[in-house]
Design goal:
4 copies of one chain form a homotetramer. Chain A has one domain (2-297): Alpha-Beta Barrel (TIM Barrel). The radius of gyration of chain A is 21 Å and the shape is globular. Chain A has a 6-stranded mixed β-sheet with strand order 1-3-6-7-8-2. A two-stranded antiparallel ribbon of chain A has the order 4-5. Helix content of chain A is 37%, strand content 8%. With 329 residues, chain A is an alpha/beta fold. In chain A, helix 8 links the parallel strand 7 (167-171) and strand 8. At the A-B interface, helix 2, helix 4, helix 9, helix 11 and helix 12 of A face helix 2, helix 4, helix 9, helix 11 and helix 12 of B. Chains A, B, C, D: InterPro entries: BHMT, BHMT-like, HCY_dom, HCY_dom_sf.
Chain lengths: 329, 329, 329, 329
Amino acid sequence: MAPAGAKRGILERLNAGEVVIGDGGFVFALEKRGYVKAGPWTPEAAAEHPEAVRQLHREFLRAGANVMQTFTFYASDDKLENKYFEHVEEAEWAVQVLKSTGKPVAANMCIGPDGDMHGVSAGECAIRLVKAGADIVGVNCHFDPLTCVQAVKLMKEAVEKAGLKAHYMVQPLAYHTPDCNRQGFIDLPEFPFALEPRILTRWDMQQYAREAYDAGIRYIGGCCGFEPYHIRALAEELAPERGFLPTASEKHGPWGTGLEMHTKPWVRARARREYWEKIRPASGRPLCPSMSKPDSWGVTKGHSDLMQQKEATSQDQLRPLFDKCSATQ
Amino acid sequence: MAPAGAKRGILERLNAGEVVIGDGGFVFALEKRGYVKAGPWTPEAAAEHPEAVRQLHREFLRAGANVMQTFTFYASDDKLENKYFEHVEEAEWAVQVLKSTGKPVAANMCIGPDGDMHGVSAGECAIRLVKAGADIVGVNCHFDPLTCVQAVKLMKEAVEKAGLKAHYMVQPLAYHTPDCNRQGFIDLPEFPFALEPRILTRWDMQQYAREAYDAGIRYIGGCCGFEPYHIRALAEELAPERGFLPTASEKHGPWGTGLEMHTKPWVRARARREYWEKIRPASGRPLCPSMSKPDSWGVTKGHSDLMQQKEATSQDQLRPLFDKCSATQ
Amino acid sequence: MAPAGAKRGILERLNAGEVVIGDGGFVFALEKRGYVKAGPWTPEAAAEHPEAVRQLHREFLRAGANVMQTFTFYASDDKLENKYFEHVEEAEWAVQVLKSTGKPVAANMCIGPDGDMHGVSAGECAIRLVKAGADIVGVNCHFDPLTCVQAVKLMKEAVEKAGLKAHYMVQPLAYHTPDCNRQGFIDLPEFPFALEPRILTRWDMQQYAREAYDAGIRYIGGCCGFEPYHIRALAEELAPERGFLPTASEKHGPWGTGLEMHTKPWVRARARREYWEKIRPASGRPLCPSMSKPDSWGVTKGHSDLMQQKEATSQDQLRPLFDKCSATQ
Amino acid sequence: MAPAGAKRGILERLNAGEVVIGDGGFVFALEKRGYVKAGPWTPEAAAEHPEAVRQLHREFLRAGANVMQTFTFYASDDKLENKYFEHVEEAEWAVQVLKSTGKPVAANMCIGPDGDMHGVSAGECAIRLVKAGADIVGVNCHFDPLTCVQAVKLMKEAVEKAGLKAHYMVQPLAYHTPDCNRQGFIDLPEFPFALEPRILTRWDMQQYAREAYDAGIRYIGGCCGFEPYHIRALAEELAPERGFLPTASEKHGPWGTGLEMHTKPWVRARARREYWEKIRPASGRPLCPSMSKPDSWGVTKGHSDLMQQKEATSQDQLRPLFDKCSATQ
């Protein structure tokens, strides 16, 4: 959850009917560049390697993002601008406090279409957060784009049915997750170090941007896995509606048209929308399945096994986990 | 093909029995960051956005690369340090010229295990290039790591059988290509804009580094698709042999050990080598196949259809290609 | 829907707590043997080739089936013992009529867990049929075993919650259908001539028999796709509960133990339950996806396009269908 | 290997340029019907249940087979008409003996395109068997149709290059085996009880019949996995060349045309060749891979581990095999 005023003018834009393109996933992108540690995912890179963080900001901006989220969560006392809550009550309370500062407030949930927050449905959550003062509601992270758009649709329907009004946002993963249960991608066996085969292509992203737009969502961005070229794809798909292309499109022929000069005629034949729009890309992994069975070991929320730990688990504590893990495979 | 002396000391290191870690794929990485156009793949970013290129250099260095290839091919008259030849005769001639400068010379081929250069086998090519003066021979690009290592093995066997001596290098793709024919990944229907499901994980990379090392290859790097974290994986796998970890490992627990603090016990159970070493990652794409049928339309080398064109193909020229492409699917 | 008294004693057995094993799919099995035409699926083979039908009966019996359904649907005026209804009202009425004959009545539905009959849920259907006099309720056809067992579970829960009592039966497909929408396997692009990769193994069948038994279902059989060895697998899995093996088990080592004499040690190592129970069989089809997108062209029930036709569609009528089909792929 | 004279006239037909359709796989088909035990695969059913065997003969005949192989191998002393040899020398000797009886002799090999018999290539084997007197040479079992056709092509090329003349036959598996190594399907982890997802469709069979015919093969049949409808598909594909359809085609609309009366328009749209010819059937198994890694434990021919055993392996002998098997997965 973040006060959306980090950059001025979001509400003005949304109220004017404009499309706002969000940015991508900083921690995942910087992990691959060597500046963030997977597991803790802490943002000390902002202090240790500011030029690397700045470069990524520059790339998302160039790709078409209107909004730059500060790369600071968990980082300091006075800048704690992103916060995760488990209960909708806490979220309501936080929205009320932030609202009192006079800034616009955006409230995002990690939620699937049939997911919920401790028994409260997506629609109900949205209503409560809008009543609490949220200007923008939506979902981010944990699921793939089409799943997230579906969840925001349910929120929008519920909010409108309740006679309320809000703006909607969506910031999904850049990974396909058709096999996730309600906990999302964290329970997939591939999380977080073998998600590569699930990465969305730029064409998947264009489809996502279109579906989000058609669903009435106007703040369209990304979360974990989004690289600059994914954001650019959103901006390119919505260029007709926005009236302009992002800067980075100077290095990108729309729909593969940059292939027009290729020497092989069958590669030149790929220089068109119909080709890339319909492609069903192979994984090149014939010994791998197409779906996974999420873990969860039957443990439900609130279980003591799920308490946040202060220290790394010792080898002695890990051993029984390793055994259990092998047995369930 | 490049004079290997761009950075001093490669031969000294190889002669001393050290492992040299190469860098990754600049054009593909910079395309995703928004600075290179797919299709022409030209390197004007070096002049237009030097900070973006420099940042990527920094990341590969931090990830463990000993060698930084200049990002300049096709860029100027006097710096033409990479060059592609179709016939082994041309390559031989080029090696002789470069050798005459007194610098060490590395000669790489894009070749599969049963591939060849216009009818000359991998082993025969290697012998001729070594005889022409190449200090290092190997393969780069077009195929996945295990395919490339296999090809270098054949080269090494042939060179040794001929009573010659050389160093060996390998710079494969970071994409799985079990379905490629001898032209490599360019003929895959996914090239170049839907290769995501084929991207190798860091664990695939560790396996590759080990197999390359065991095959006697000592210059081990990457080509298209290699991101900094892939290079880091090579350096981590070979840390015991090299005696040190790369700088970027300060942000990486070996074999997933950074997950030791995760709240969910089934995620903590992934903090170990046996888990990631054996993982068979799902693609999350149940409507996609695992392999593709490479294009090629029955056209063989030398066909007029394959001549390099100076200008982009016009829409009128493209139309029959589009039709043909649809018909063959 | 069929009066269950075709063979005497079903209710006696079920009332006594016994497990009744059903037979398999006659029309699909006889189609593969060359005696039934796919499309019309009519049973004239009973008259034209009685020895072929009799042989299949013999095989199912030998495999362990307690019940032989007459192979007569659509066959004559006075023997119309199987009938399909679209509305639960019709089914209720039919159950009442059959009940008045004094015979036991079994009422099956083609229904998925979240499917329904024109808006009436599985649970509600079951309640109404039991109230109408059905002794046995359950589902058959259209979905795979685990989906069907899930649907019967919902029926049982609803019936028991309503304070009623019934026996439960299940006769699923022998094809995996995780990708079906509520219309079942008919809308899969592979129906009916390319379903082979979906055929269940004997081990899948043992898992199904166990899950059905654990769910309290006591009439456990099969529908389209079930061959004699599938029925045998049901009877073998439930041999401990039933106290005996079927005759055909004299030609079957349980859990692959017939492999104990194989010359290759790695094949001998497959002579055990843990091997076959966990196997994840490959399709050997690397160019095929794992799931399909069911057809349906957005047409809903009651649409004039879906009226039963008396005559084969002419080539002129088929042409636009062919075009539409190609366009939607 | 079998004297082809079991049915008179094969050579006459082949010499006259006719196509001969073979039969299918008796032991595998009868195993699924409950009369043969997998593992030993012995043919006592011919004595114990002659009506079941006779019924299957009838079905293959009706499906278009010109030739009925006797179901007698390993069955008696004087009728030993099928025999397997490991060395080409033995096969040569057997051909010579059979030839001396004055009957036509067909010699089949279980061999892949790059397979061989103890170091003798497919082409060389064919030459030696033709020189020894074989009238018909070819391959059967162990590999899928396209692999087998490829092997026979190599044999034909070699025989013709040697200035010899023969007829060619092929009797492949009805299972896809792109992942087999030279030992064929026995080493696949799915052998023999989980091969279902690999079963060829009738359309795969039509493609096979066409490719075999185009390769100059005129005795075209099947081995393990072939059911009557598979044989019918061969006969239907080659009906234009043979001038007639098989009897069982009275129950089969060519290329799915029996679907013309279906109520759903999207199913009617499948009543045509282009639909079924191009279909890429899904497996409905999203947790399964598309290919397997064949077993073999590094054991090569002649190893004592591979000796034929007289008695079933004891539990004590099996235990270390089970452990080894688990460790290699």
